[in-house]
Amino acid sequence: MTRHNFFNGTFLLRLAVAIILVVHGAGGMFNNGINDFGNLFLNQVGFAPFGVFLVWVIKLSHLVCAVCLLFEKYVKWLGWLTIFILIMGIVLVHYKEGWFVVGGGRNGVEFNFLLIMALLTIMFPQGLNKAQ
């Protein structure tokens, strides 16, 4: 990989999204968040007995996606997977809270929406009309 490719026009956005995915992914691994979300939420809304397993898969996929974003490997495949996870987060958790994460509400969809748009921009840096 040449220096030009690594530090291209999407580098800062890739770096920002990668940091967000690492912090969000790793956070639950060290504060019992994975077990809590799996057992106390996902298992309760119909994913039992797989709630904890699903959260581990999601969090590990965030970490893999972050590394791949930095090195521009498997970006579209992992981007679509992460977008699917973010949409499911909207459907299961955030939609009922409204739009705002803070300010006009709490825990809303706006941050997931922004991450989805950022991932699409990384996946299609030339725009959707020139998607390959």
Automatic annotation (TrEMBL):
<feature type="transmembrane region" description="Helical">
    <location>
        <begin position="12"/>
        <end position="30"/>
    </location>
</feature>
<feature type="transmembrane region" description="Helical">
    <location>
        <begin position="50"/>
        <end position="70"/>
    </location>
</feature>
<keyword id="KW-1133">Transmembrane helix</keyword>
<protein>
    <recommendedName>
        <fullName>DoxX family protein</fullName>
    </recommendedName>
</protein>
<keyword id="KW-0812">Transmembrane</keyword>
<feature type="transmembrane region" description="Helical">
    <location>
        <begin position="111"/>
        <end position="128"/>
    </location>
</feature>
<dbReference type="InterPro" id="IPR032808">
    <property type="entry name" value="DoxX"/>
</dbReference>
<keyword id="KW-0472">Membrane</keyword>
<feature type="transmembrane region" description="Helical">
    <location>
        <begin position="77"/>
        <end position="95"/>
    </location>
</feature>
<dbReference type="Pfam" id="PF07681">
    <property type="entry name" value="DoxX"/>
</dbReference>
